[in-house]
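Regression report. Comparing outputs from two consecutive submissions.

Submission 1:
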Amino acid sequence: MANLAPTARTREKPSGDEEATANLKLGEFQNVPTLTLSEARLLINAVMDHRKTLRTVDETETLIKTQDYLDVFARFKQKENIEAVERYLATKTELELFERSQLGSLCCESAEEAKTLIPSLTNKISDQDLQELLDEITKLRNPVY
């Protein structure tokens, strides 16, 4: 049998030192800006709208599935609300960028839920302060007009 060419590019094996547990270890992604799902949705939709004006749209299956996912799971749909959440979370400098984006994506109802889903918050912020943060995010999600 002839030697066949590889069907995929070779990849570096992951170092395995990344983990989002009580001790946040993000390896090369530590201190890298992150997006909430709502921000990612806003960004992808803006890029796609721009490409449509240039008539250079190439909607791959992956892109369509990503947009569908973000349409379902992005908690904030209005640009103003997305920006307000980002501005608010940016004031919480005691939290890692990853933790902030997780809080903005998950929209937890209680401090207990947030600390269960984002264990690295446990020793960084009191339950009372975290609950206040979550309540503010909820207000931005459900604005009163």
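Submission 2:
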Amino acid sequence: MSSQISPLATQLLTQLSSTKNFHPTQQWLTAFMSTQKSTTPLPALTSTASFRLLSSDITTSLSSDSPHCLPNDIHNVNVKERLLQGPIVVQLLGIEDMSKSRWEQVEAIEALERGEGTKGREIIRVTATEDDDDSNAGINKGGGPHKLSLQDAHGTCIYGIELRDIKGVGLGMRIGCKMILRNVLVARGVLLLEPANTTLLGGKIETLHKAWKENRKAELKATIELSERTAQSNT
């Protein structure tokens, strides 16, 4: 890739790799550089590129080469455990609070829709700002552990379980939020996540985030109704 791009673009690749572990595709990099002035200082160029990558779908913007992605056999349940060294960038596709019933999850989502969050047992008012929208700042801190649906640049999806509270992880997370995985233990195809091996970068994919917010509550309610009908038919 480096032989076909400008010295400035090469410097940008180095900065993105060292600061965010981002390895953009040549197609993405070429398109991005075509919108930038050649006189733009490297720090400003890096900041703009990072912001756009955080808002992108990594299956189209980042390299899917094997060193940057999950192993092909990551879902093999016959492998009792393995260590995933990384670093690997993934994006959030969904999140569930395993400590809450489905009704409690519906209530938590509705609280977030009203602009309310939790601080311990106390309900607080969360004021959304433009910065908050990209940094997962309006997260519901109560509950947990959480089950996360994650995806790498190759498109491989995998579940991760939060073993210990990770700052920034909660029901208010933005779908498409980027995370870096390092030295993660994988137990029978499930990532075991904790603060030492999981770093949140932020960002979101607007279309996915909107769809998830619109559909998640409806899916939970439909599951509740099905469970109730099944229980009634068995009595």
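Expected: both submissions complete independently.
Actual: both completed, but the second showed a warning that disappeared on reload.
Relevant detail on submission 2: Residues 69 and 130 are 31 Å apart (CA to CA).
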